[in-house]
Design brief:
The complex is a heterodimer.
Chain A lengths: L11 H5 L10 H8 L7 H10 L11 H20 L3 H9 L1 H14 L25 H4 L31 H5 L19 H16 L11 H7 L5 H8 L6 H4 L35
Helix pairs in contact in A: 5-6, 6-10, 9-11, 10-11
Chain B lengths: L2 H12 L3 H23 L3 H15 L7 H23 L7 H9 L6 H20 L3 H12 L4 H8 L3 H23 L3
Classes of the chains: A mainly alpha, B mainly alpha.
Chain lengths: 285, 186
Amino acid sequence: MDPRNAWGAGGAEEDEMGIDRNRDFDVSVSERIVAGEDVGPRNLVNLLAIAAAPAHGDETAGEEAAVMAFRAARRRLAERGNRKPAVVRWAALLGAKTAAALAVAVVATGAALAAGTGVLPNPFRKLDTPPTVPASVTSPVGETTPDPVRTPPVVPSQPSGPPASVPPSVAPLISLPPTGAPANGGAPPPTVPASMTGLCRAYQAHEDRQPGSAANSPAFASLVVAAGGADQVPAYCAAVLGEQLTTESAQGSLQDAGSVPDAGEPGSDGTAVDGTGADTAAPGQ
Amino acid sequence: MEAADLGRALDGARSGDEFAFRSIYRALQPGILRYVRGLVGEDAEDVASEAWAQVARDIGDFPGDADGFRRWVVTIARNRALDHLRRRRRRPPASVAAAFDELEDRASDDDTEKRVLEAVATNAAVALIGSLPQEQAEAVLLRVVVGLDVASVAEILGKRPGAVRTATHRGLRRLADLLEDRNGPA
């Protein structure tokens, strides 16, 4: 008898079970059975064939429930794409113009970024102070609408408090020097904070590398707020950087801000025991 | 479902195609359900439903290929099944005798009845496999019923491929003994 076919895998367990009569049923036979070869005890082969028989109708009875879950997930995904920071949702309640000015004021305090971490600044405190950015920033093309909070341009003041939640990556972005001459007509407001110009450049560079991802980055939260929503950033930056700006894209979409429960991360439930992948089944080995 | 077909269906489902998702469900659910049934017994359908709800929720963000997706779905089902067992503290006692009775009752000339009996027989065969020690039951179910290769099973179970082969072998040996003791030599 080939020594490799001795009970290497078995030992006492098999001996206890008294299966000496199957001495030739070793691990290589098992591998061949699994591979679908017609070897091994007939009863066993039949049993496995029954267990692996084609699907029965009632086994897929949960299909509609699964599809309902799929639809619900798609809806949440669509909503997640439209999600805006809490500050923007506050803004929707206050009216676009007022809110946009407030939002920028909030940005100047560095607090807006806290919205991304669930800390909502109190916008009403800022009502006591003049908006620090003129309406021309907050509504680059909507000049015909009277602006109840229009005030003389004021250079943004220094942050009144520590921007506790500002990601480290923001600082270098803000310090990017603004470049590029404004195009005719669509000139960016003279009082756009330099930080916005820098952020816009960084945003566009980010979008060039990974389209669609920049708006979700906390580094651009203040830009999103200033623009009035993630989908407004390109138009906003176009104005800031002196490019053409279309009227529609600039008109506010502050109304449809919504939140969505977080979907779990894929793979969070997966195992990742790796490094064994090279060892595949080899029938009959 | 071949990997290429599954890959196409996966792409479709990731981009929101409901029919692609349905085809994935139909392809994978029977094996998933049988595997879960071997682990948890009669609560298998509820547990599999939980797993599919999770798959439906997260499939849009799943980054891998078809084979990886298959492992991912099985792993989700396994985790839901193990959660279920933890809540219930232990695996249900598999009734080997009942499984045998159902296996032996499967002779009929009527087509409808035949299909029903085939389903019963499949469940009984899965229950018999499920009566093995869990490590052996999982190895046999995942390889024979779900149709995964050794490397995939090893990854899912967190074992080395050699250990998976050993568990498979021990499981098949034990099944052969159960059948032989019951029916006499094949």
